[in-house]
Amino acid sequence: MKNTYTFYEAIEQNKRKTWIIFFLISILLFFVCYSIIYFFNLGEIAIFIALIVTLTVNYYAYKNSDKLILSISGAYEPKKEEYPYLINIVEGLSIAAGIPTPKIYVINDSSPNAFATGKDPKNSAIAVTTGLLEKMNRLELEGVVAHEISHIKNYDVRLQTIAVVLVGLIVILGDSLKRSFYYGSFYSGEKRRNKDQNFLGIISLIIALLAPLLATILRFSLSRQREYMADATAAMLTRYPEGLASALEKIAKDPNPVKRANNITAPLYIADPLKKYNVNNLFSTHPPIEERIKRLRMMGERWKLMGVK
């Protein structure tokens, strides 16, 4: 009972952390929006406009971010007869995990990879590349699908999916604010002679510089432990850690990046789709893949010693 309690406690903790990070990213978005709107000389009403913009964007991100990500990734819903074995695996593992079967999408790309997206287990989707379907055997494919289903079960997808849209917008707006500052478009006429405006311009530049950075750090702050947790949960679902470990090895060895992936969507994938495994720092989208493989195989060895089948 203790292990089961701890596992569900971890899921509840994930939910709480999701809302905290969502709130912090929203604050950063508000400050960036306000910094831009203020320079239209709207006075105090700029605060209310920025608040409305922030709330509207948050609502859109919550409702539509999963659809937007699938569209950006070039994912499509295949016909049932195209990949019956994939549908069979997803349905079987969903039953084992105790969640509704997610929608299944395929990305036409030779690089083996996959990701999950959605708001909760009732509104979720799994996308896999054709490269994954072609290069993995059944046990390896089960391991990858189980990993993505674990993200759905653990409520990781809610944070990652919404954060992708919000952080992407913060980066774009922050870049626009920096460019406007550099080119002096915020300082013309009387504004150039207004010391308060100049001071606010400096503050705005600082926000523009720091908001994308802080938002990115917030998004990545939980990604490593969540990946390890999803790996462990996947191993428990399949009862075969080696399947996922072998799949990760193949993914790591494949030299081709996912064509439609980018820095914003990269954290969603099971392994870095941009093939930047050598970057091991605060901004890594994933924990070291070698360490993930090592942990899975150590889990398998412990299970053998314990007689777990």
UniProtKB/TrEMBL annotation:
Entry keyword set: Cell membrane, Hydrolase, Membrane, Metal-binding, Metalloprotease, Protease, Transmembrane, Transmembrane helix, Zinc
InterPro entries: HtpX_protease, Pept_M48_protease_HtpX, Peptidase_M48
Record GO cellular component, one term: plasma membrane
Membrane topology: Multi-pass membrane protein
EC number(s) per entry: 3.4.24.-
Keyword Cell cycle listed: no
Co-factor remark: Binds 1 zinc ion per subunit.
Domain Peptidase M48: 84-297
Keyword check for Transmembrane helix: yes
Pfam family, one: Peptidase_M48
Primary location recorded for the protein, binned into one broad class: membrane
One GO biological process term: proteolysis
Name listed for the protein in its UniProt record: Protease HtpX homolog
